[in-house]
Design goal:
Strands 1-2-9-6-5-3-4 form a 7-stranded mixed sheet, with helices on both faces. About 45% of the residues lie in helices and about 20% in strands. The chain has helices at about 50-60, 80-95, 110-120, 135-140, 180-195, 195-210, 215-235, 250-260, 265-285, 290-300, 315-320, 350-360, and strands spanning about 5-10, 15-20, 40-45, 65-70, 100-105, 125-130, 145-150, 155-160, 165-170, 335-340, 340-345. It has about 375 residues and is of the alpha/beta class. It folds into 2 domains: about 5-175, 3-Layer(aba) Sandwich (Rossmann fold), CATH 3.40.50.1970; about 180-360, Dehydroquinate synthase-like - alpha domain (Dehydroquinate synthase-like, alpha domain). The protein contains 12 helices and 11 strands. Helix 5 runs antiparallel to helix 6 (about 195-210), helix 9 (about 265-285) packs antiparallel against helix 10 (about 290-300) and helix 11 (about 315-320) crosses helix 12 (about 350-360).
Amino acid sequence: MPQHAAVQVNTPGHRYDIVIARGALADPVSWQGLPPASQAVIVTNTTLAPLYAAALQQALAPHYRRVSVLSLPDGEAHKTWETLNLIFDHLLGAGCDRKTVLFALGGGVVGDMTGFAAACYMRGVPFVQVPTTLLAQVDSSVGGKTAINHPLGKNMIGAFYQPVRVVCDLATLDTLPARELAAGLAEVIKYGPIADAAFLDWIEAHLDALLARDPAALSYAVGRSCEIKAWVVGQDERESGLRAILNFGHTFGHAIEAGLGYGQWLHGEAVGCGMLMASDLSARLGLMPAAFVERMRTLLQRAGLPVRAPAIGIDRFVELMRIDKKAQDGEIRFVLIEALGRAGVRPAPDALVRAVIAGHSEPA
């Protein structure tokens, strides 16, 4: 594996590498040792296909007799059954067998849908994550969560299905729009409060370098984020306990996404705002000092992320959070910060939750 591929994911049934290197897409070593097959299918979207599909197709050509490309419509609004069926249509139309390898070239939407298709097609074919956004490189491409959205809830239909490799080419972040970069930084920031207080200090000190796309800063941020996620996933692959801490800010964030309509806010934008709300809830419960809430607000604002939720309405907000996958018997459970670098999952009094929503939302 390339020199920078220092991160390994080990779950009870799977072991795979996360390659993190600038230029990994063109490095032949990135693609060595993958499952043999006669066909490979690159699943991407209409935005990324013109940028990277030909390069990946060329890199894979020595390994497969045929490498085809399927370009899906771009955006969270297309993370649906209808779009998923386009992948199955392509696989069946191309005569793909159960050894065919799928390559997810794109952000979280492409990765989630390709992984879900791989889990379902012929009851499971191998797939490789090739994330091209910061958010996908530090979060969604690692750990085997695959899904599509339902109008009532985000990622509610899916499967745990691990990739055989993750290849993060940091050069793809050069073409990432500034808004997408900020959205990815939300998932980087997340790892500090839940697992590594020193990493939170590092992010604050190097945020300007990250926003300027400094290669060394991005390499460290992606690598450390993947290390933390790999550590968590290795202990709890199917989110029966510890892995839930990775959803810090997501209970509030998913409600924002569903309440607005998918794609109005980027996932990372909703998570960033949700992290501030969860931080405030942690403080109101006496777990963290008020200064922590302001520290998070300052950092999120510096990263260019929204810190006030849209006017969804408190009742609707709470209703959407009850559909969250962490909910039990209709009781909403939140990832809260118990100490800097440590998180836990617990319920919270309804009155406090409503006060947090009111205090961090635009007026109706």
